[in-house]
Amino acid sequence: MVARTSEHHVVLPVAEARWLSQTFVHWPYEPRIVQDLLPSGLTVDTYEDAAWIGFTPFVMSALRPGGLPPARWCFPETNLRTYVRRPDGLDGLWFLSLEVGTVVMLAARAIGAPYHLGALTVHFESGTVRYTGVRRGGFPAYGLTVRPGAPVVPGARDIWLTSRWRAFTRTGRVLWRTEVDHEPWPLYGADLLDLRQSLTTAAGLPAPSGPPILHFSPRVHGVRFALPRPLRGRPAAAGPRLPAAK
């Protein structure tokens, strides 16, 4: 069940980090459109009869192997994701794309994480946060400017859109699960000042319609990643291909 607090504790993390200055931008979609992009073995999760696509730029900070002291190294990352369930009810994230500017994250391609190299920036000025990114090769690209607002008391939809405690990935016919554990997101409202993006188009989705739902979180500490594990049960059949990583 989706909950604001982690449903498990990662005792022996393979990696640890902090996530800083994360903006959640969400659009509703018809479930059948999103389902067409998922592999066999995963079903699109819905809220208020809609599937949801999340565009989430942030700063990855203090990433290091589990148990080592925090590093000063940090870099931007941007995810395009949706929400899914297994037949046994296990819920989590499915990433349509992962944009990053450092080659170290490409190691996660080994379990099917769709990382793409590009040029990403995050700028802070006069109470606003500006995110920009372009994938190597010039497409897709994005620009997002928000003005974070006041803290919000999370309601059911806020929690559903922001709180997930595992991600699914796929290599060939094998689905993987990676658990994550961290403190609850401190959520704030945000005003949208500018948004241009082609990530949804590159992922095979129609352009979003209507204004998005926005949340901002200044930081979450104690992010702990478990060792990825292959899921037991019937192997997943080959599904629609994601764009090739570059």
Description:
With 246 residues, this protein is mainly beta. It has a single domain, classed as Acetoacetate decarboxylase-like (Beta Barrel). 7% of the residues lie in helices and 50% in strands. The chain contains three helices and 13 strands. It has a seven-stranded mixed beta barrel with strand order 1-3-4-5-9-10-12. A hairpin with a 5-residue loop joins strand 7 and strand 8. The chain is globular and about 50 Å long.
Give the averaged pLDDT, no decimals: 93
Please, how many helices? Answer: 3
CATH class: Mainly Beta
Characterize the largest beta sheet: strand count, sense, and whether it forms a barrel: 7 strands, mixed, barrel
**CATH fold title:** Acetoacetate decarboxylase-like
Task: State the helical fraction.
Answer: under 10%
Question: Radius of gyration in whole Å, from Cα?
Answer: 17 Å
Shape category = globular
- Strand order within the widest sheet? 1-3-4-5-9-10-12
Keywords:
mainly beta; seven-stranded mixed barrel; 246 residues; disordered C terminus; globular; 3 helices
List the helices and strands and how they pair.
Layout: E1 15-29, H1 31-35, E2 43-44, E3 51-65, E4 74-85, E5 91-100, E6 115-125, E7 128-135, E8 141-151, H2 156-162, E9 166-171, E10 174-181, E11 188-197, H3 199-202, E12 213-225, E13 229-230
Parallel strand pairs: 5-6, 5-9
Antiparallel strand pairs: 1-3, 1-12, 2-4, 3-4, 4-5, 6-7, 7-8, 8-11, 9-10, 10-12, 10-13
